[in-house]
Amino acid sequence: MQRKATGIVGAVVLAIFGTVLLVAYVQSAKNDAIAGEALVNVWRVKTTIKQGTKAEDIEDSLERTKVPVKVRAKGAIDDLDDIKGQVSSTELVAGEQIVASRFITPSEARQGEAPPDLLQVTVELDPQRALGGRVRVGDTVAVLLSFEPFDVEGTDPEKPTKTSNVTHMELHDVKVVSVQIADDSGVPEVAGEGDSRKSSNDQAVSSAPTSTLLVTFALDAPSVEQLVFAAEFGTVWLAAEPPDAPENGTKQVTRGNVFSDTVIK
Fold first, then answer.
1. Bridge-partner residues for 218, per DSSP?
2. What are the C-alpha distances in Å from 32 to residues 22, 23, 35, 36, 166?
3. Same structural domain for residues 114 and 236?
4. How confident is the model over 51-100, as pLDDT tens digits?
């Protein structure tokens, strides 16, 4: 009986010893594999980075780390200067590596997609006609068409008459799908950032662009005709139009009705 117990104990000891040797071997092989594989530097997201964030502003949200080559993401960057001047094309979440494909130029970021059932048309606008140069991709705007008098033929061809000066908010809920600025040096800064000054009430006043903007809209066919006609023969103005903005009460405004009926004393 004692001999049998001794045999069992010996078998258990051998099994434990074998298991320890196996674990040690596997760990040693793993360590050798890692030691034999080169490590590379990458930037990894530490805290969420919002879409559209400038590459120059993300370093505080990153951590520097080394990873084996085999787990390095395709396109992962080692130097943040590689994406200098670009912005994030999507939200970046904690844990992911910084890769070049996640960043695009500001010009590309301003591009948008129009609904498939609408046309796209581009109009050149001075900054003051395009919300002070701050119209952006994704904005919804109202479009005002304004005309100086046109010559029209009356009953007597020798005595042409003219139309009145007229302005009307003709188009509503127009989607902006692209904004390009002729001179990148004229891109406006966000109020309170960059080159700004203080107004009399101590609120930040941002610098305005000095170049014209090429604004592309998504419109149905009849609206495209109206917009192009106004751009050719009149002027076009944009008004910011959020979803709850009222659209009632508009009319064709002329010199004859531009003033309200209220008597000014």
1. 120, 175
2. 15, 14, 5, 6, 82
3. yes
4. 889 999 999 999 999 888 888 998 998 899 999 999 988 889 999 999 99
In this structure, the answer to whether residues 64 and 123 fall within a common structural domain is no
> Two tokens at 1?
């009986």
Strands of 127-212, DSSP E: 140-147, 151-152, 161-162, 166-181, 196-198, 204-206
DSSP 8-state assignment for residue 145: E
Structure tokens at 197: 């000054």
Residues 92 and 156 in one domain: no
Q: Domain total for the chain?
A: 2
Q: Rounded CA gap, 64 and 94, in Å?
A: 13
Least confident piece of the model among 130-144, 193-207, 230-244:
193-207
What the block records as the tokens of 248 is 């009632």
- Encode pLDDT of 10-36 as tens digits: 555 555 655 666 666 667 666 665 554
Per the structure, the complete domain to which residue 80 belongs is given by 39-104
The single-letter DSSP state of residue 3 is H
Tell the residue number behind the tokens 């007597």, with chain if given: 156
Residue linked to tokens 């994704």:
138
